[in-house]
Design a protein that fits this description.
This is TrkA family potassium uptake protein. By secondary structure, the protein is an alpha/beta fold. The chain is 36% helix and 25% strand. Strands 3-2-1-4-5-6 form a 6-stranded parallel sheet, with helices on both faces. A 5-stranded antiparallel sheet has the order 7-8-11-9-10. Adenosine-5'-diphosphate is lined by residues 10-15, 33-35, 38, 53-55, 74-78, 81.
Length: 217
């Protein structure tokens, strides 16, 4: 399988961090921005950096975007430009188009013209941080469904020195332990004889309410 290819339109704080992270993860990344300095600054870190106005359909048509896996539209407040480029990349058949928006109206418009996903980075980060302040690290969990999550859980003091079999967390809390971490070492798929030590971190899957209760124990 070849490397995944993404195009990022707009190199504000959001677009730039998405582009650099994708490149860091080994993806091919093409970036487009009409600001010369931003293009110059990022050029050595991405596959291809193009100075262009994203509404310039002619230039965009020369970029060979047809086979890209995804497009990220991060041109900020310019709704008209975001709409145009969303329509253009969808017409080219790019399967996944993600757009950054600031308001519900922008979200509605961009979805209507074909964006597969819209994100509100400031709003979403604000919610995540507030949840973290209230619930500790609970919201660092990976949500598996609306009911279940996978998360890291500090071993409770009453668990120290006991085996997983003795603790019987599956029966008691309906949670599954899929790994145990201790000082950087990760024991994947522990056996029933695994003894839980002080400072162990359990990687578990369970119901959100249960996990939240155990986290705040
Ligand atoms: P953030 O809030 O993530 O920092 P900004 O709205 O500040 O994002 O940044 C938007 C980026 O999009 C800027 O780098 C700007 O140069 C670029 N941009 C805006 N309009 C266009 C356009 N029509 N063509 C190309 N780039 C654009």
């Amino acid at each position: 399988m070849g490397k995944k290819e993404f195009v990022v339109f707009g190199l504000g704080r959001f677009g730039k961090s998405v582009a650099l992270t994708l490149a860091d993860s080994g993806c091919e990344v093409l970036v487009v921005d009409d600001n010369e300095e931003k293009i110059h600054d990022i050029a050595e870190y991405v596959t291809y950096a193009v100075k262009a106005d994203v509404t310039d359909a002619e230039t965009l048509s020369t970029l060979g975007l047809r086979n890209f896996d995804g497009a990220i539209i991060a041109i900020g407040e310019n709704l008209e430009a975001s709409v145009l480029v969303t329509i253009l990349v969808k017409e080219l058949g790019i399967p996944y188009v993600l757009a950054k928006v600031q308001t519900d109206t922008q979200a509605k418009v961009l979805k209507k013209v074909g964006a597969d996903m819209v994100v509100f980075p400031e709003k979403e980060t604000g919610i995540r941080i507030a949840n973290k302040l209230v619930h500790g690290n609970f919201f660092d969990a990976i949500e598996l469904s609306t009911t279940f999550s996978m998360m890291e859980l500090d071993a409770l003091p009453e668990w120290y020195g006991k085996t997983l079999s003795e603790l019987d967390l599956r029966a008691k809390y309906d949670i599954n332990v899929i790994g145990v971490k201790n000082r950087g070492k990760f024991n994947f798929n522990p056996t029933a004889e695994e003894i839980i030590d002080r400072d162990d971190i359990l990687v578990v899957i369970g119901r959100n309410e249960t996990l939240s209760q155990l986290q705040n124990h």
